[in-house]
Every structure is written in C-alpha cells, then in structure tokens.
Automatic annotation (TrEMBL):
Amino-acid biosynthesis recorded as keyword: no
Name of the protein in question: NADH dehydrogenase
Family assignment from sequence similarity: Belongs to the NADH dehydrogenase family.
Species: Paenibacillus typhae
Residue stretches in coiled coil: none
Record flagged with keyword Flavoprotein: yes
Domain of life: Bacteria
Domain FAD/NAD(P)-binding: 6-320
Biological-process GO terms, alphabetical: aerobic electron transport chain
Cofactor(s) listed in the protein's UniProt record: FAD
Single Gene Ontology MF annotation: NAD(P)H dehydrogenase (quinone) activity
Keywords, sorted A to Z: FAD, Flavoprotein, Oxidoreductase
Amino acid sequence: MSSIPKIVILGAGYGGILTAQRLQKALNYNEADVTLVNRHEYHYFTTHLHMPAAGTDSIEHTRVSISKLIDEFKIDLVKSSVQEIRTQQKKVILEDGTLSYDYLVIALGGEPETFGIPGLDKYALTIRSINSVRLIREHIEYQFAKYKNENNAQEHINFVVGGAGFSGIEFVAELADRIPALCKEYDVDPSLVNIYNVEAAPTALPGFAPELVEHAMSVLTKKGVTFKIGVAIKECLPGGVILATGEEIKASTIVWTGGIRGNRLIEAAGFEAMRGRVKVDEYLRVPGHENIFIIGDGSLMINPEGRPYPPTAQIAMQQGECCAHNLVAAIRSQQPKKFVFSNKGTVASLGKGQGIAVVGDKTYKGWTAAQLKKVVDMRYLFIIGGIPLVLRKGRFF
C-alpha cells in the first residue's frame, strides 16, 4: 500500500483549477497523489456566460480544455459527476466509481437559489453552465421565429430577467445589444420588444455606489430595459410571471439570475450549512474536519464588517491559492496560513463599450470601465494559462 497522501479536488471552476495549478507547482515528485474531478473536460469562465447566453459572443471564448491548464503527469483528471461524499469512510462516490482521499477539496460551485418561488425551478432558465447558455441562446432565437408564425403573439418578444445583481445586469445589457440584430434577422419591429429586469431588493447592483447604479440603470434604460426595482416575483408560470404587486407580465422567456446557493452535495454530506454554504474556518477547513477544505460558492466567510463575502470568481481564485498552500503545509506538518481576502476591485459590464467599476477608492464608468473589464478578464487568462491563453481567448476589441 502506498503511503503517499491522496488529495482529491472536486470541481474545476475558479477555485478548483487554481488549487490544482498551485499544487502541481509546489509539490515535489511523489509527495502527494492529486486527483481533479470534473464533470466536463473543460474549465469555463462563469463571469463570461452572459455573453454567449445572449448571443453576443462565441461559447468557445468562454471555455478552455483542462488538459491545457494542468500537467497530467502531476494531476490525474477524472471526468465524472460526484454523487455522494462519505466523510466517515473518506470516500467520494462518482457516477462510475469511487475515490478514496486523505485530503478533500470541495469546489463544486453553486446552484440557482429560487427562494421557494413557485414555478421558478420549472419554468425559468438559468445561466449556470455551457449547456444552459446554449439553451438560452437557442430559446431566444426560437421565440423570434415563433413570433411571426403565431400571429405576432407579444409574449414571444417579451423577456423577463429575475435579479438585478451582477449576472442579471450583465445579461440584460448583452440581450439589449443583441435585440437589434435579431429584429433585423426576423423582420420584427424593435419598438415592440420588451426586456423587463425585476429585482426584489430596493436597489440594483448591491455593493456599488448609488451614482454608479444610477448610471448603469440610465445606460440600460436607453437600450430598452424596463426596470422593476423593489418588486418581487411572486410566481413563475409557463407563460410569464406574477409580481408581488399582482401585475402579470406575459413572457415566453424567463431567465433567473436572482441568487446562488451552495451545492446540495455539501448538505447531503452532513456538514452544517446555510443554503448549501459552510462557514469554514480561517484556514478554509470545515469545522471538525481538518482534512476537508471548501472553497468558492460552497464556502461562507465573514468580512470585517460582519457580513458574508459575496461568492465571486475573485474570492474563489484567492481561496484556491490559499487552499493549495495549506494542503502542502498539512502534508509537510507546517503551519497553515490564514485566508485574507484582497479586493482587487469590482467591474460590471453594461454591454458593448459600457461598464462601471470600483478599484480601491476610485470609481469609473463608461468606456474606461469597459476596458478595465477586459483587463480583469485577460489577467485571469494570464494567471491560469499565460500569454498563449490570453492570445487565444482574450477579448481585445
């Protein structure tokens, strides 16, 4: 029997891929056996998905083969879906086998949180994966085609997006940019198309300064977006939504971006969780399980103001780097380091040539913010794949 410790990483999202890459750099030959489990052979950029979903960019710009990001002589890649985590036995049950571990990293990403709104899980589309993005894009195009073939039924060109956070705002911006081309292609009068962005909270884009939120809403309103802020969706139907005010919006397309929870496998494993997220310790470990780390959307960490950090790509990446360091420290019986989040700034895209950004104590909007968004995206490509990946996947224009 080999005495080499076994590290299993579940998920190759932002946190998982950074953990794997840092481990392959830090570990010596035969110091640990590392396995990365992912349901697809590719890593995709969650922060880009709103663009191919709306049809304004290619899916190929949003993903890269995992084999190009890791050294498969140092990391074993297993393409499979996780079915169960058995902590007592130190095993992970996959759809086609079982893996045993000494150290486990759970980086499975999140799932849409519907908050119990009736019909949402059944009738709304979500932007969560490459396959869901394909479905949304094709569904939107199909509605334009159906409009002319079904006596110009208005619901086919009404679009409801639930949630005005990052994902919702960025998606409606891209959708608004796409509408003119779709109208031209399908001979539809652009003035007849309606995009509704519904948000239960009192403001769009929580976390941004009011003047930036106002700018964002002004830009998108001019692009044709109708905002309904401070109004919850009460029920989702096959042909639209009913709002808390009693108003019904008839629409054949409902896209839900209103919340993320942790993966349900985390709760099923018996960890104490809130909406599928575990309050990990300062070293990213699960309380009571010093050999299990949770990073990304499944982890819950409290900021200095006493509020949970939002589950962003930025925090997942930094957690991945810290997690790898602490795994190496555990193997070498060294002291782990505490996770300290370093906020590099926040940027939201508002479609072609538009955006808002906060970097340090400075705010940006318009074209400058849009360029910052490209810089942020290319920085990530450089971190995981160097200059070759930037040149292949970067958006320069």
